[in-house]
TrEMBL record:
NCBIfam families: PRK05113.1 (NF003475), rnfB (TIGR01944). Residues 72-101, 102-131 form the 4Fe-4S ferredoxin-type domain. It comes from the Bacteria. Residues 1-57 form the 4Fe-4S domain. This is Ion-translocating oxidoreductase complex subunit B. The lineage of its organism: Bacteria, Pseudomonadati, Pseudomonadota, Gammaproteobacteria, Pseudomonadales. Residues 372-381 have a biased composition (Basic and acidic residues). Keywords: 4Fe-4S, Cell inner membrane, Cell membrane, Electron transport, Iron, Iron-sulfur, Membrane, Metal-binding, Repeat, Translocase, Transport. GO terms for molecular function: 4 iron, 4 sulfur cluster binding; electron transfer activity; metal ion binding.
Amino acid sequence: MNLIQRIDALLPQTQCGKCGHPGCKPYAEGIAKGEAINKCPPGGQETITGLAYLLRVPVLDLDISRGEAPAQIAYIREAECIGCTKCIQACPVDAIVGAAKLMHTVIIDECTGCDLCVAPCPVDCIELRPLVSVVPIVGGLATNDLERHERSLKRDRARRRYEQRNARLQREEEHKLAERLARSERSAPMDTIPVDNHQVVQDAAIKKARITVAMSRAQLYKSLKAFGHPPTFEQQSQLIVLQRQFEAAEQVLAMLEVDSPPATAIPKDPALKRAKIQLAMRRAELKKAREQRADNQQLATLSAALTAAEHNLHEAEAASEQPRPSLQRVEKRPIDSQLRQLKTALAYARADVSKLQRQPAPSVDELNAAQRRLDEAERQLQAHRPSP
């Protein structure tokens, strides 16, 4: 076991980020390089003492600027849970179980009290409760060797769960990439150029990296908006972790985009773009004039301008090197506003009848009146529709 592993074995394995690192292992690497040993509030003075003994350095007091982190566990108010799975995704040790649109709950024996599940919850139904110990605590240190042994076992179990979770996520991502590759190969026609497997995997990785950047940015902005001003130390620590995750996601995306060969882009034709804009403007002007019932001379002028814009667009398309789209123009039917109103009235009438029928003891008069409104709405709709 090297020095980093021995340091990591003494850390509480909450992966909470209060030390300024995105997890316990990165903090262990920082300590091995000379970083202070008193930046872990969850570990407290016991962890500082163990690190000082291991590294043969003076024992320091806990850095109080990073706040306090007493032993705690997460608790989900299950009646308020909406089953969004955001807390499940945020938990670093898979201590929350549940499924989409179903109630979630915390496995108390596996929860490390990192509080990373609190911020993502959209309905604020997660709270942190103190972890009650049956063994007396004196001066912040447990006097019972059995409890220290239990904490050591829980640290090892949390580390294993954290590593297993990361391995599972890696396997799932590799499985998704393999499925995308298989779908691409199945969908490719036999007489086309063979699929570049490396390019397919690269494109899928870039797409996932962009999604990760977007999600990291959204989570960071959401936390910035939700936290107070100024934020508490715990909130500030979470913001640091979220900011670093966002920056790391951006770096991964940048590296993938650099390694990916640039796609052959068709150069834009400014003249063609201007012609399209002019045509859209002329159409909008003519439509507005017709809606405002303009005089015939103004309508004739705008129609001539529209014809000239269409002619200019055809000339620009002929002179442009860009491929012309193979589109088939379809004449749109005019919107029948009265038909739309009748359909809306029919939908409301059906909803009223359905609502009354679902009541335990509906009023007969109200139900008959609603049924008459429904029949009348159907009759008016049938009368308005032209006969085939």
